[in-house]
Model the fold of this input.
Amino acid sequence: MNTENTLLPSGLGRLHLGRIQQFLTSHNANPINQLPNWLKQYFTNNQLVHRRKRADKGHVYLIGAGPGDAELLTLKAHRLIQQADVVMFDWLVNPDIIKMNPSHVERVFVGKKCGRHSMQQADICQLMVEVALTGKNIVRLKGGDPAIFARAAEECDILAKHNIDFAIVPGITAASGASAYAGIPLTHRECAQSVRFITAHLKSIKSIKSASGELKSATDEPNWQALVAGAGASHSATHGETLVFYMGLKRIETIMQRLETHGLAANTPVAVIDQASTAQQQVCIGTLENIAKRVTEQNFQGPAVTIVGEVVNKRHKVNLSLLSESANELAATA
Done:
């Protein structure tokens, strides 16, 4: 490692860091002695720094952290995390991603977990607003993709209400991560021309409270008839539909009963992927009639994704060690 590089402050944005490194390499005659004055002049004249100082409000980035594997974080997400003042995250975010944060980044755990919410959604939204109004830039890290069952719309609503600029960075959703790491395709030319994502919250509440505090009625039950009509088509044609249930581990038995009651065959293939794309991933294969019992026997911890449809029978064994080996090789050559 170059001596000059070890003197650079941690947490610098990539743009600033690159220009400082250019200075070090272009000044061969003792650049270290000249560096303090150059840094002072650079940050005095730099327009990006001035723009930040003029801002009376911070920005918010709603970022998808991916399905579990820390290496599935996007490059843009990683860059914005490095440049943030505050990172707000919950239990769905891999701790290894949080460990990547520079020391100057404040970490705030907002602790949302099904059945164990240390902070309500409205409180999280309010906290984002309060911090942004102090001028700090915030990264709100969400498991999977912010736009899929992550309540990003509510956060966008309140940020817009307070005229706080925000941007959304997509992430790999849990269904994609589970599909890839379990070797189960979500679509297949022979049996599934479409895929549907469904939240598995079933009749838990009669109304919901939005981030603004307004009470609205909520219908938690999906249209079971429509789901069965799509998924059942895979038995007789190539136009079947794969069903993917999110957050359904505790409701697995009820979900399977609902599907069967509305006409889906009891022998329809089902896969439950627990902690997808992590080292703790487990996969349970069964059918509508026996999957709940099998999942209980395997003592899944969640979060889990449930895939229903003929695509489960198209599963191939994936050699996940190839991904680990490539990661080790990358680290060795870095």
About this structure: The first helix runs from residue 3 to 6. Residues 1-15 have pLDDT under 50 and may be disordered. The radius of gyration is 24 Å.
